Structures are given as C-alpha cells and as structure tokens.
Amino acid sequence: MSWLRSFPIVFLLFFLTVFGASPARALSVMDPFNIPAAMDSGTVKAGDGIAYADGQRHYLDVYAPEARGVAAPVVFFIYGGGWNRGERSDYQFVGRALAARGFVTVIADYRLVPEVKYPEFLEDNASALRWVQDHIGEYGGDPNRVFLAGHSAGAYNAVMLALDPSFRAEYGVTMPIRAVAALSGPFDFYPFEYGEVQNAFGDAPSPEGTQPINLVTPDAPPMYLASGTTDPIVRVQNTENLAAKLTASGVWVTTKYYEGFGHMEPVIAMGALWRWRMPVLDDMVAFFTRFGAFPSGVPYVAVAPEAPATAVEPMRKIIDQLDQMFEPIEN
User: Following CA atoms 262, 263, 264, 270 in sequence, which dihedral angle do they give, to the nearest 10 degrees?
Assistant: First the structure.
C-alpha cells in the first residue's frame, strides 16, 4: 500500500473528488476513509440504493468480490451512530473490506431517532434481513451462510437481532445466523443515563427487556465481542459483562480487547487506511471462518498494511472528532 506513504496526495484526491465531481454533495467526516484510493480493490458495488421496504430510510447497498464463482458467505453489517445518526454511504470502506476477504456484504439504512424509537430501528434491520433472505442469491451470496456484524449502536442492533428471535419471526426471517461480530457495543446500559439513550429507549414498556445482557439463552449464536480498552463512549464492561453471560450459558464467545484504543477506531481500522493500527478485520474474518464462512478454505489472503510515513496525526484528529460527536452511553 505505497499510497499510504504519500497521504497528503490522498487527501488532495479526496477534495478534488468531492468538490470537482459533485460540488453540491454534503461533506462527511467519514469521507477520507471512503475515497477510492483508501479502499480495498478487487471489489464491486453490486447493488446500489436497493429498496427493501417503503420509505426514505429503507435502502441498502451490496458489496461483493469482483471475481465471484460459487456462492459466497454474507455479512449483514449495521452501522452505529447513537441510534440518531448514520448513513450507509459512510461505511463503504467496511463493505469493500469484507468483500475483499470474500464476503458479499450488505449495509442498510434504517430509521433513526427522533423519527422512531425502540424497537422500530430493530424492526427495520429485521426487514432488511428478510430482503437478504429473499434476494442475496441474486448477488452471489449464500443465504445459508449469513453473519451479522455491527459497531456501537449497530453492534447493539446486531446482537439484539440474534438474541431476540421475535424480530426475525415478525418478518419471516428463517435463515440461520451463523455468528455475530459486535464492535464497541452497548449491551448492559440500564438505567438510561444520557439524552441519546433516553430518547431512543425511554418509552420502552419494559426497559430491562431492551438489554441484550438480559436476553441471553443457550440458543444464541457464537459471538465475537471486541472493544477498545479506553472507549469513552461505551465502557468496556459492556463487552465483559455480555461475554461472561454468554459463557455461563454455554455459548461460544471470543473477546478481543484492543489496548489503548477508543470507540471509533475498531470500526475505522477495518478499512485499508487505518488497518495497520489493529487486526480487527483479520480477527473478525478468522472468527467467521471458524463457524463455516468458507468450508472449502479461505479464498482471499489478508494483506497486512504498513504504517504510513505520514497521516497518523491528521487521522487521529479526525477520529478524535468522531468520538466527540457521541454522548457516553452510561456513567
């Protein structure tokens, strides 16, 4: 990845792309991670803006390996944003990263607070899962090898879809969930301390029933739970507590604690630009492989990127800015 050694050129390309090709386009703090030069090659956007239900927030994108033969495993990735922000376009780098490792990857928008509250955002994701069940074969994916993944609020959504079968049943989702990967997720945060959480969950008739920690059964799928040890938004105890509950119930759980990292870096490090910081993508793929992603062997070898000669401090500032956008989930 020699382009990393000349990061200022990449940033120049970013601004030329944004301002030259689409002057009216709204800038996002996630844009540097999504310019073509900063994403994995050998992938395609196989589906762009596909409606999975009626409504402005009910569209999804599909990413896939450029070279596809037999049906590939599927990752349904749910982005975070405190349940009140987020766009699927901000996470193109995640779709490309997983596609470069051989997965057909689906990223769906869903309705956000204040338009909706719990449980509507979970229902939207369940509805998108039904689209996956019905249509992912048309894009080269295998509906019998589906994995859930998410970051932050998206990690909560993914884990809830896995632990509470009523959401999937409501939309007729019968395909198996092979395993779940949850990054920086809130799983044990009642009572609701802060505004974002109160706005999303404050009207729930059974607050304790919104907590993944209270829904663990021996029927839960295997889970990979990861957190930065210095996460200022979602305490690492969320991962520790859910992992302990899963273990006590006899559910396979793998935990990864990335020393010294905060809230956003685990998901940012899935992308090519920041992957040298931690092996979160390799850890996730290895976990999914353990549970049947590639029965015939992994077709793609992960490339370990080198640390860039420059870019570290500018990118740290962007990631610090991202962390500052969120309220803590709890004290």
Answer: 80
Domains in the chain: boundaries: 39-324
Residue 211 Cα distances to 40, 186, 189, 222, angstroms: 35, 9, 7, 18
Query: How does 175-198 read in b/e, with b if 16+ C-beta sit within 10 Å?
Result: bebbbbbbbbbbbbbbebebebbe
Radius of gyration of the chain from its Cα atoms, rounded to whole angstroms: 19
* 105 beta partners: 63, 75
State the chain's maximal CA–CA distance in angstroms: 55
CA 233 to chain centre: 16
User: CA-CA distance, 325 to 205, in Å (whole number)?
Assistant: 29
Please report which confidence band the pLDDT of residue 155 belongs to, taking 50, 70 and 90 as the band edges: very high
Question: In Å, how far are 23, 51, 76, 200, 207 from 154, measured between CA atoms?
Answer: 30, 20, 11, 13, 19
Cβ–Cβ under 8 Å, residues 147 and 293: yes
- pLDDT per position as a tens digit, 19-72: 334 444 567 888 889 998 889 999 999 999 999 999 999 999 999 999 877 899
Each residue's pLDDT tens digit, 221-269: 999 999 999 999 999 999 999 999 999 999 999 999 999 999 999 999 9
pTM value? 0.89
- 141-151: strand order across its sheet: 43-51, 59-65, 104-108, 72-78, 141-151, 177-183, 223-228, 253-258
Written as one letter, the residue type at 283 is D
Q: How many Å apart are CA 238 and CA 234, to the nearest integer?
A: 7
Q: How far apart are the first and last CA of the chain?
A: 41
- Architecture field, domain 39-324: 3-Layer(aba) Sandwich (3.40)
Q: In the numeric block, which tokens belong to residue 7?
A: 């990061």
